[in-house]
Design goal:
The chain is mainly alpha-helical. The chain has a domain at 193-342. Helices cover 73% and strands 0% of the residues. α3 (62-92) runs antiparallel to α4, α7 (181-217) packs across α13 (326-348) and α8 crosses α9. The chain is globular.
């Protein structure tokens, strides 16, 4: 009974033999003991599931090649027609040919200026995007060197702006006082982004209010679509300008593509019942007019697009500041309209 009790109480234990003890056991005729390496008991790497690698497209891109070839042919045809037109004018009237040639040179210079402006605007949009990515990396790794580079690029971006002269001076005063990299970025966000966020929210409120009012009174549905698209693009361009992007036409469409991609990933265009009830006043607007309810929904969608564009236009992510919500923005839309009406009434009085 005692032997069985001892066997029950005894628990398995792992032990390691020295090389000298192993040799002694072999000389005494003891059976061979295979001691497993603890690392060998781990599961092999081949047992883990392997993620499939996406296949890369091989060969030429036929669609891009076709578009390039067709565009080149159109440019050559237009150039040939223009040169033929100028030659005909020279053959008939010499002074008309010279005027046409001068106008062609002016048009070429203007086209080059437009192309250069669009390239610079697109570079500004991507510069703000790269700056935001560097700031996020500095926050993740708490890197002092990356933080110093981000702050230097921020000062370069906002140098010469009268509305940020005082915030830049306040930020420079704390350079030697704040050492922690995340704290330095939070301080830069509070000092520089706070006044810009207020202006950006005002831009979104203005655009949402215009869209909601004009689509409610406009009887043509096609004009509604064009007006809403134009107002949203103008809002995105103003938001980029507020934060230092100053995007051109191509840059604005690039920003719109980024916003649409962001909304498609996050599902940001879905409207909840609570938001709709807050906007239409528990069904009051819907009972008054169907057009008024449609205009209200268009205004809500414009505000949501603007809110989705805010983190894409800002050179710093939301860390110290709270990202504005849709309900808060809609409150500003209504409140701003009332403040505007009271200000106009005071001026008339």
């Amino acid at each position: 009974m005692s032997a069985s009790t001892d066997e029950k109480k005894r628990r398995p234990a792992a032990f390691r033999l020295d090389p000298s003890e192993r040799s002694d056991l072999r000389r005494r005729g003891a059976p061979r003991i295979d001691v497993a390496d603890p690392d060998d008991m781990l599961p092999a790497e081949t047992d883990a599931p392997v993620m499939p690698t996406p296949l890369r497209r091989r060969g030429p891109r036929w669609g891009g090649l076709l578009a390039t070839a067709v565009s080149g042919l159109i440019v050559l045809a237009l150039g040939q027609l223009t040169l033929q037109f100028i030659e005909d004018l020279y053959a008939r009237y010499l002074w008309l040919g010279r005027i046409a040639l001068a106008l062609l040179i002016i048009a070429g210079i203007a086209l080059a200026g437009l192309v250069l402006r669009e390239i610079v605007g697109l570079m500004r949009v991507h510069r703000v995007e790269r700056l935001r990515a560097e700031a996020e990396r500095a926050l993740r790794h708490a890197d002092a060197a990356i933080t110093a580079d981000v702050l230097g690029r921020l000062r370069t971006l906002y140098r010469g702006r009268p509305d940020l002269t005082l915030p830049l001076a306040r930020l420079a005063e704390h350079d030697d006082e704040v050492i922690d990299p995340p704290d330095r970025l939070k301080l830069a966000e509070r000092e520089l982004m706070t006044p810009l966020d207020a202006v950006a929210e005002r831009v979104i409120a203005d655009a949402a209010r215009r869209v909601s009012v004009l689509t409610a009174v406009n009887p043509a549905g096609v004009l509604d679509v064009l007006f809403v698209a134009w107002q949203n693009l103008a809002m995105l361009r103003r938001l980029a300008t507020v934060y230092g992007g100053r995007a051109g036409t191509i840059g604005t469409f690039e920003l719109a593509r980024m916003v649409v991609t962001h909304l498609a990933v996050t599902g940001g265009l879905a409207l909840s019942d609570s938001v709709l009830q807050q906007v239409i006043g528990h069904g009051l607007a819907g009972r008054l007019s169907a057009r008024l309810g449609e205009g209200t929904v268009n205004g809500v969608l414009t505000a949501r697009i603007g809110l989705a564009a805010l983190p894409l236009c800002r050179p710093l992510p939301y860390v110290a500041q709270q990202r504005p919500s849709l309900s808060r923005m809609l409150g500003k839309v209504v409140g701003y309209g009332r403040d505007r009406e009271s200000a106009d009434a005071d001026k008339r009085a």
